[in-house]
Amino acid sequence: MAVLEKRPAWRGVLVAREKTIQCLECLNPPFTMPQELQLEGAFKEAFIFNPCGMGHFVLRPLGTTANLVHKWIEFNTYLRNQAKVGVVLLQDWELFILPPKSIPVADLSAEVYYRARAKLKSPACVSQTQVMAGSTLRSGTRVHPSHLETLEQMHAAWVFGAVAELIDNARDAKATRLEISIEDMVLGETGTVPVLQMVDNGLGMNHEEIVKMLSFGHKRPGESDAEQIGHFGVGFKDLEVPIVTYKRFSSGQISLDESVCTKQDEEKCKKAVTKHSPFINDISIGAQFARIENTGTRIFVYNLEQWDGKCIFEWNRSLDPETNAQNEKNELEDIKIRSRRVRVRAGQTSKQVPLDFSLRAYTEVLFLVPSMKIYLQRSLVNTRNLAKTLQNVERFQYHFVHEKDPIKNKLIPLTLGKLQIEYDRGNCGIFLYWHGRLIEAYKRVGDMVHSADIGRGIIGIMDVTDIMDFGDGKVGVLNNKQGFTDSDRFSKLEKWLDKTFGEYWDNNFDKFGLFEKEKLKEGERLVHDAEWVQCMKCSKWRELPKGWCADDLVGDWFCYMKPFEGNCDMAEAVQDNVITVAINRDGNKKVAPVFVTNDSDASLVVNPESSTSSLDIGATKTLKRLKRSRPG
Prior knowledge:
Layout: E1 10-16, E2 19-26, E3 36-38, E4 44-45, E5 55-61, H1 66-82, E6 84-89, E7 93-97, E8 110-116, E9 125-128, E10 140-141, H2 145-152, H3 160-172, E11 177-187, E12 191-200, H4 207-213, E13 241-248, E14 254-256, H5 263-276, H6 282-290, E15 297-301, E16 306-307, E17 310-311, E18 313-315, H7 321-325, E19 335-337, H8 359-364, E20 373-376, E21 379-380, E22 391-400, E23 410-418, H9 420-425, E24 429-434, E25 437-443, E26 458-463, H10 465-468, E27 469-471, E28 474-475, H11 488-513, E29 532-534, E30 541-543, E31 578-583, E32 589-592, E33 594-596, E34 603-605, H12 615-629
Parallel strand pairs: 1-3, 9-13, 11-20, 22-31, 24-26
Antiparallel strand pairs: 1-2, 2-5, 4-6, 5-8, 6-7, 7-8, 10-13, 11-12, 12-15, 13-14, 16-17, 18-19, 20-21, 22-23, 23-26, 24-25, 27-28, 29-30, 31-32, 33-34
């Protein structure tokens, strides 16, 4: 007869940043624990934490001093209000302290879940490269498992932020084509699992570059590169990540690059790959190299996060064109976040924000100047030039004054206008770009924050690269590239945006008041005021005639095709009815002359309050005629 030995009660302390939070007791510890539990600096998000299959025990507070009671209540209050899970890493175990279900009090016990720490090595990273002669590089790098969990939190709130990082890498590698898809692949005994694939035709990486990419703390660039989005270099350390490097000959044959990788290293790495990845043998690994025509990168992401027991993503499982044609909803191929959660923004009440959960909607506006074709589930994404889809457009100039170097003073343009589709959805705000890449969308400014109706449908576009690049490699952009740091420069910009939007809204309020929301009839869909499409050859934007929608143009589109039926030598059309607003040195607002072509005769628009010339009467008539011609 077997007798289980009961472990004695555990008593110790919970510590954070070398300061004691509380003295604790566990009456039935499941394993031997050290007297000091060190709380990690990174917390998990409670809403994505899944304790399924984990063990459980309870920690009771022992400390009765005012200081310990205060810290214990403060700690639990933080977990509850911020929906966080505390993490403690032991040598063989991971502990997760859950937020309390009730208001924290002095004698509140803590629920703790635990699991064994993974001992397996991470999947191998296979690269194809040519390495300079004489280089001495190791065939692996090291990463600590806890650091991987810390990095995981960077994009835990919005998974598309992580996908955007991979898109940035492809663009920085000068790729002209990027394919994003999710397909089911077999993963050992686990069975079929969804795998996110990112395939580009960029420059790829050699052995030295891939080791650097997988290393933590390599040197940050000394200055900002206008052509590069990647900047922060967040890598890994202390857990071995095997790397195998092959070289390919002109005949197509590949062989091990023994200048940087030994036969023993190859066998070790391939063993890890075949055990922990969907690639089970040399044939499946070699097939990936065969699909790279010249240079490029292929990335496979599996073990994707779960939502309600299913993959966090939803996508078109069948990529057969005939099957897609029978789609009842007639939707374009897409990858969507299953939860359909809308991101939290100050003042926003609308729940119709496709950009927050549709990868197609996000990639349509991800770059100001698209230079790379993106295919989603094998369907081309029609990128949108936001500025060209606006109505009642005015352009303003932000006077950026550098703190030290007057030569770096610049005028930064802001485009404001109304977008009917966003009006119907109840959205508004400024799209802020950095190096031509979207950082913050629908940023509400001024009175937009306080009322859902003020600014409704108003969209702004601004690239703040010169403002948020501080020099010496320092930038005012968060590491996850989903927001800006709190700085004096950004604070001044926000105040200017508040004031500028207020002036624009006041001056155009009468026009916007005429727009009424109409219910869509059966079979109708929301469309933009003006539809533009970009030629895949010359990259010029062509305006589509009434009745045409850019989403209806399947596949690559060129100038000779319908409905434009022109050629690439033809000049790009200038957007009508654009008013440029600036400020005189005396502080008075002025409107720069622009040509408008709403009527058969082109007329010149000037400031109607100006005492200049005999154009006053004609200009005023043009402005009135322009107001009447605006769609309502």
